UniProtKB/TrEMBL annotation:
It is a peripheral membrane protein. GO terms for cellular component: plasma membrane. Its EC number is 7.4.2.1. Residues 25-259 form the ABC transporter domain. This is ABC-type polar-amino-acid transporter. Residues 1-21 are annotated as: Disordered. Belongs to the ABC transporter superfamily. The lineage of its organism: Bacteria, Bacillati, Actinomycetota, Actinomycetes, Streptosporangiales. It is found in: Cell membrane.
C-alpha cells in the first residue's frame, strides 16, 4: 500500500555520494566534556542506511548529548561525526543546510506556540530549503495526513493533545526531508494512553525505510523496529546487540542490572 516513490521521499530522496554500503551516520572516537565532566568517552557508532538503532541506558549516561552532538547542537572535543559521508561544519550557512539532513524530535515537542500546526511544518522547508510556500503546504498536508492529524492543521499547538503535538513535531522534522531521524525519548513526556499513537507513527516510518536513532525505554518498540540496541552508561557504549539478544540474554552485567530494574 506504500509505493516505492513514497518510501524514497520519506527516506530523504535519492542519496548523494556513495549510495552503496557506506553507512549513513558514522561516529568515530568521539569525546566530549562539560567542564571536568567527561560525558562522551570515545564513542564509536555506525548507523547504516535504513537501519533503526535504539539507544537505551540510565539517566545521565550521555544519550541526549550524543544525539545533540550528531546534530551539532553540541560541539565535540575530539573525534568526528559524519552524516552521509560529510562532517558537519561548526557554523555558517552550510551548517544550517547540512543540519537539516538530521531531523530531531525531542521529549518536549518544541513546536512554535504562536504558529499553527501547518505553519510549524512549512517554516523550515520555506526558510532553509527555499521550497515555494504552496509546494511546502502541499507536502506538509501529506505529512500531517500520514501522522493522522491533517484535520488539526489550522490549530495552534496548545489546542492539541500531547500525542498529537508530538506527531506534529515528527511531521515538521520529516518536512525537511532528512536523511536520518533522531528521536530523544519522544514518548517520555506523554500520558500513557498517547504513547502508542506516537510509537505507531515511528514504527511505520521504520518500516518504510527511514534511518533512525531512537533513545527510548520502550522495549516493545525496540523489539519490533530496531536492528540494533546500544546500551550506554557513564558516557560509554557498554554493549551493542540485537534486540532479541539484548532483552533475553544481555552480555554485560551492567546491562543485565539495568534491565532488571526497568523490566
Ligand atoms: P542522558 O540523556 O543519558 O540522561 P545526558 O546526555 O543528558 O544523559 O547527560 C550526560 C551528563 O552530562 C549528565 O551528567 C548531565 O548532567 C551532563 N550534562 C548534560 N548537559 C549538560 C550541560 N549543558 N552542561 C553541563 N552538564 C551537562
Ligand atoms: Mg536524555
Amino acid at each position: 500500500n506504500v509505493t516505492d516513490k513514497e518510501v524514497t521521499e520519506v527516506a530523504g530522496g535519492p542519496q548523494e555520494g556513495d549510495p552503496g554500503a557506506a553507512p549513513l551516520v558514522v561516529v568515530e572516537n568521539v569525546n566530549k566534556y562539560f567542564g571536568d565532566l567527561h560525558v562522551l568517552k570515545d564513542i564509536n557508532l555506525t548507523v547504516n542506511r535504513g537501519e533503526v538503532v535504539v539507544i537505551i541506558g540510565p539517566s545521565g549516561g550521555g544519550k541526549s548529548t550524543l544525539c545533540r552532538s550528531i546534530n551539532r547542537l553540541e560541539p565535540i572535543d575530539s573525534g568526528r561525526i559524519l552524516v552521509d559521508g560529510k562532517e558537519l561544519p561548526k557554523e555558517g550557512k552550510e551548517l544550517a543546510r547540512l543540519r537539516a539532513d538530521v531531523g530531531m524530535v525531542f521529549q518536549s515537542f518544541n513546536l512554535f506556540a504562536h504558529k499553527t500546526i501547518l505553519e510549524n511544518v512549512t517554516l523550515g522547508p520555506v526558510k532553509v530549503r527555499k521550497v515555494p510556500k504552496e509546494e511546502a503546504e502541499k507536502h506538509a498536508m501529506e505529512l500531517l495526513d500520514r501522522v493522522g492529524i491533517a484535520s488539526q492543521a489550522q490549530k495552534y499547538p496548545a489546542q492539541l493533545s500531547g500525542g498529537q503535538q508530538q506527531r506534529a513535531a515528527i511531521a515538521r522534522s520529516l518536512a525537511m526531508r532528512p536523511k536520518v531521524m533522531l528521536f530523544d525519548e519522544p514518548t517520555s513526556a506523554l500520558d500513557p494512553e498517547m504513547v502508542n499513537e506516537v510509537l505507531d507513527v515511528m514504527t511505520e516510518l521504520a518500516r518504510e525505510g527511514m534511518t533512525m536513532i531512537v533513545v527510548t525505554h520502550e522495549m516493545g518498540f525496540a523489539r519490533r523496529a530496531a536492528q540494533k540496541v546500544v546500551f550506554m552508561a557513564d558516557g560509554q557504549i557498554v554493549e551493542e546487540n540485537t534486540p532479541d539478544e539484548f532483552f533475553t540474554n544481555a552480555r554485560t552485567d551492567r546491562a543485565k542490572d539495568f534491565l532488571s530494574k526497568i523490566l
